[in-house]
Amino acid sequence: AQSVTQLDSQVPVFEEAPVELRCNYSSSVSVYLFWYVQYPNQGLQLLLKYLSGSTLVKGINGFEAEFNKSQTSFHLRKPSVHISDTAEYFCAVEGGGSNYKLTFGKGTLLTVNP
Amino acid sequence: DAGVTQSPTHLIKTRGQHVTLRCSPISGHKSVSWYQQVLGQGPQFIFQYYEKEERGRGNFPDRFSARQFPNYSSELNVNALLLGDSALYLCASSGRTSGYNEQFFGPGTRLTVL
Question: Who among A4, A49, A100 is closest to B33 (CB)?
Fold first, then answer.
C-alpha cells in the first residue's frame, strides 16, 4: 500500500519570497510522483511529475521539485511566489502495481500575502 | 480540444436519495477514474474504468457504483445517500493502458447531502 504525507497543512508567505511545500511518501516499490494545484472551486491541474531520470523536475508556473529516494521525499519549491500562486497543492503517488490509481496527500494551502 | 467535462456542476440531495453524476472524457481517452474529495482532504480513489470494464475499486461501500458507455463517457451512482457523501466528485480521463497514464481532471461535481 502507498501513502503520502504532506507535512504542512497551511503555508503563509509574502509575495516574492521563496517557498517549499514538503511531501513524503511510503511505498515498497518504484512509484511515479506528482504535484497538482487546485484553485478555489476548480478541479486539479498537474504542476509537474517525476517518472524516472533526473531527480530535479521542472513544472509549470516556475515550480520545481526534487525526488529524493533515500528520504522518500518529493518537495515542491518556487524561488519567488506571486499572489496568483495562492491555492491548494496536492502531492500524489501512482505505481506499485496499482498504476491506475493516484494516492493523494491531504493538501497544503499556500497563501501568498502582499 | 475540450477537456474533461462533468455534469451537473452542483446538486443538493437529501439523505436516502440516489444521485447520478456524469463525466465525458477527453476525445480519444478510453479510461475514466472517479475520485471523492471531502472538504479539507485530498481526493480519494473510487473507481477506474477502461473499455467499459472496471479496472480498480477503492475502499468505498457498495452504495457506490459506476459504469462506462461505448463512447467512453461514465456515470457514478450513489444510493442511499448519507451526510458524509457530501463532497466534490472528480472525474479524470487518461489515454494509455499501461505504464504511465497522465490523468486529466474535470472541474468536479459538488454534491451536498442535507
Answer: A100
